[in-house]
Amino acid sequence: MSKFENVTVVKKANMYFDGKVTSRTIEFANGDVKTLGIMMPGEYRFGTDKKEIMEILAGQVEVLLPGEDLWHKIGGGDSFEVPANSAFDIKVLDVTDYCCSYLG
Amino acid sequence: MSKFENVTVVKKANMYFDGKVTSRTIEFANGDVKTLGIMMPGEYRFGTDKKEIMEILAGQVEVLLPGEDLWHKIGGGDSFEVPANSAFDIKVLDVTDYCCSYLG
Question: Which keywords does this Swiss-Prot/TrEMBL entry list (chains A, B) (predicted)?
Answer without folding.
Answer: Glycosyltransferase, Transferase
